[in-house]
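Annex B. Sample input.
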Amino acid sequence: MAARFNDHVVGRLRDGTRRGLARLGVADADIIESWVPGAFELPLAAKVLAQAGKVDAVICLGTVIRGDTPHFDYVCAEAARGIQQAQLDTGVPVMFGVLTVDTEQQALERAGEGTDNKGDEAAVGAVEMALLVRCLRG
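Annex B, continued. Sample output.
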């Protein structure tokens, strides 16, 4: 799941996610990519996808940059709460790959070309959690 708002950063997170998944041996054909309007909409889409039973994990990608109003706080808190609730409700790992930063420069620094890209980190976490959940369920 990827949020279109701030897509100039989210696209870079998506690229990092794809690189990470490829490095871990996940085939392109096994990846479902969907876009939502913004970070606030990520939890619902993630929950619906997880409930569909077609995925081992969901990765939520977004970027929320602090502005002059408290809107930032509400969006960040509800996106985090909703993403956590989606995984608890479904039993499917849902990774929080949402940047919550003060400046655009901070966002771009976290969405670079290397393995320090937060999308790449979310990919690694998703695979780790999917394998763990599968193992725990026997």
